[in-house]
Amino acid sequence: MTKRWSGLPGLARVVAVACCMRDRALAGLMVAAVVVWWIAMPAMSQAAGTEKSGPEQDLTTLETRWWDAIKNHDRAALEAVLAEDFMGVDNGAEPATTKRRWVDWAMTFQLKSYVLEKLEVRINGDTAIVAVHYSTIATVRGVERSDHGVDMDVFVRRHGRWQALGTGEIKTLSKD
To answer: What one-character DSSP code corresponds to residue 96?
Structure first.
């Protein structure tokens, strides 16, 4: 490209050069390619935006471990996710003000299946909030039911490791 177009931003530079080309077919092809690229970029960046990296991916993985531990009644795995000073509150239950009480409650829960529909992560330094939009099929006191809700989970990073500090459940829809 010539020096006279060097001050233009990338896309404008390509269009300006194409408009000055003597081969109109090549110029048209060049402009068409730029237009297709310009239209496709938002879709490509949205798809790329769904893939998480770094701390956001760490928290997403930790959420999955948390739910798997409850489903599989894996006390050790659950205790590894939760901080020692963890506090949890779930709808229909007394606040479990200690890690031990919450783990004991979770071990009585018969989670048959779950889907983490959407995770919204907000990170500020060594603190994070994850809104977990979920749906479940569970047996509670001998009755099978399906639920939708949102867990608001708070995490802290201590000694380079994320741990759940608290959770609160918000039921959004019940299919009962």
So the answer is: B
Residue type at 108? T
**CB-based contacts of 162, cutoff 8 Å, min separation 6:** 55, 58, 59, 62, 128, 155, 156
Q: Answer whether CATH 3.40.30.10 is correct for domain 55-174.
A: no
Pairing of strands 82-89, 161-174: parallel
Residue 90: which residues within 8 A CB-CB, separation 6 or more? 96, 105, 167, 168, 169
Question: How far is it, in rounded angstroms, from Cα 137 to Cα 147?
Answer: 7
Tens of pLDDT, residue by residue over 1-12, are: 445 545 444 444
Distance (Å, rounded) from C-alpha 140 to C-alpha 96? 17
Asked if residue 71 lies in contact with residue 63, where contact means CB atoms within 8 angstroms, the answer is no
**What residues pair up with 153 in beta bridges, in sequence order?**
130, 167
Backbone angles phi, psi at 2, to 5 degrees: -80, 165
The DSSP call for residue 97 is -
CA distances, 136 to each of 25, 67, 176 (Å): 57, 11, 12
Strand 110-124 to strand 161-174: parallel, antiparallel, or no bridges (unpaired)?
A: unpaired
pTM, to two decimals: 0.66
pLDDT at 92: 60
**For residues 76, 98, 132 and 171, what is the CA-based torsion angle, rounded to 10 degrees?**
130
